[in-house]
Write a structure and sequence with these properties.
Structural class: alpha/beta
CATH class of the largest domain: Alpha Beta
Largest sheet: 6 strands, parallel
């Protein structure tokens, strides 16, 4: 990619890549930890609801006082977005409505935007990416997080001339997790409530990873960026080790997939709760096929593990480093004008799905809460039923009952028609009715 070489040229020309970070939480802190060892990259401003907490985060990850003093800390993201000394904005709040507002403001200001906030991307990313393209700036998924890494593997396979059969990631999954709530989450992680509290762990955030919502969100981002498609009735989470990827992830009666060219998340647990051998809990993968007999023979000659046919193989990465790898997206946008993954259409949606029988008058509590989890379905199916996206299923009141397991729809809730995020999402649905 030559990103390091290009960055050093900018450094030698005294033209550092200047970054503004919005949100100094875990992902943001991991990115900040790499800044002192990346000459030519400069964080000029950090916006956080608690600026002093952001300063403390910088100290905790190894910044010296001189670097801290040279950085502006603010609780006003608008000031950062309007600043002349910011080339690339990193949106790392994790709050979908805020992420959409920040991305649009960055694009309007002529700044590249790296969207760590995958919740916002899945809610309205196709329209954000179109706005960015028309403004001549880059809108990018965040390298280090699974969607961008999966998109890279898919691109690698296609660029080599391989057909992609499946791509996705690993996670810890059992069917019962879909009903998990913040009150029940810690035993699933092997923790007591006291241990989690001592570690400063947010139960609703951790529950969103456990109950399947985050997996759905991440796979929707991959689908919308790569053209792969979701299974029609949600992710299957088949138990699968790395040695089984090529053999198990095939369509129909032969394997666990619904169709070729599908996203899927593999579980690190068997359905009885026992561990999967060679699990991919923290990693990502792509399954691809040789186009002909000669290529398949080359697989054998060069020791490529395959399925029984010798034609299908898998490439995987056993881990991802979150914010420690974010520089790749920032430098790709600033130095090459390229995204590390971006939505090209509306192919998948993540719809709020009732965890238990919901009653009219209840207020939904969003991603990872006690009321709903986010289920990945094709965008066309979501539009057909009027599915309520998980990114807007927070602090909205139900106007009618929704039975357990059923998708919540626009007609089931009372939305504020003047809400900017709601209006932008509905605009996205109109502009991208659904991509094939």
């Amino acid at each position: 990619m030559n990103l390091h070489r290009l960055l050093q040229a900018r450094r030698e020309a005294d033209r550092p890549v200047r970054v503004g970070l919005i949100g100094a939480g875990k992902f943001g802190s991991m990115f900040l930890a790499q800044v002192p060892t990346t000459p030519g990259l400069q964080v000029t401003a950090i916006a956080d609801l608690a600026p002093e907490r952001a300063r403390a985060a910088c100290r905790r990850v190894g910044w010296d006082e001189a670097r801290i003093a040279a950085t502006r800390f603010t609780d006003d993201s608008a000031r950062l977005l309007a600043a002349d000394d910011v080339d690339v904005v990193v949106e790392a709040t994790g709050h979908a409505p805020a992420g959409i507002a920040h991305a649009r403001a960055a694009i309007a200001a002529g700044k590249h935007i790296v969207m760590v906030n995958v919740e916002a991307d899945v809610l309205a990313g196709p329209l954000l990416a179109r706005e960015a393209a028309r403004a001549g700036v880059v809108y990018s998924l965040a390298y280090g997080d699974q969607p961008a890494l999966i998109a890279e593997l898919v691109d690698w396979a296609r660029a080599c001339g391989f057909a992609v059969i499946a791509a996705g990631k690993g996670t810890k999954y059992l069917p019962e997790y879909h009903a998990s709530t913040p009150a029940t989450v810690w035993p699933y992680y092997g923790l007591t409530e006291a241990q989690a509290r001592e570690g400063g762990m947010n139960p609703q955030m951790f529950n969103s990873f456990l109950d399947g919502t985050k997996s759905g969100i991440e796979m929707a981002a991959v689908t919308n960026a790569t053209g792969l498609t979701p299974p029609p009735d949600g992710l299957g989470f088949p138990p699968c080790g790395t040695h089984e990827l090529a053999q198990l992830l095939r369509p129909g009666n032969e394997g666990a997939l619904h169709h070729r060219g599908q996203v899927e998340v593999v579980s690190s647990l068997q359905r009885d709760g026992s561990p999967v051998t060679n699990d991919l809990r923290w990693g990502v993968y792509v399954v691809f096929e040789a186009p002909g007999e000669y290529t398949a023979r080359c697989f054998g000659e060069y020791g490529v593990p395959t399925d029984a046919s010798g034609r299908v193989s898998a490439l995987y990465r056993p881990f991802h480093l979150i914010g420690l790898e974010l520089n790749v997206s920032i430098l790709s946008a600033a130095l090459r004008g390229e995204a590390t993954g971006a939505p090209t259409g509306f192919r998948a949606d993540v719809v709020a799905t009732a965890k238990h029988d919901l009653r009219a008058g209840e207020t939904l509590d969003g991603e990872g809460g006690a009321c709903v989890w986010g289920k990945l379905i094709p965008a066309a199916a979501s539009l057909q039923i009027g599915g309520l996206p998980i990114g807007l299923a927070n602090r909205v009141k139900l106007v009618r009952d929704v039975p357990a397991g059923r998708a919540v729809t626009w007609e089931d809730v009372r939305m504020d028609p003047a809400d900017g995020t709601y209006r932008f999402r509905r605009e996205m649905e109109a502009v991208f009715p659904s991509a094939d």
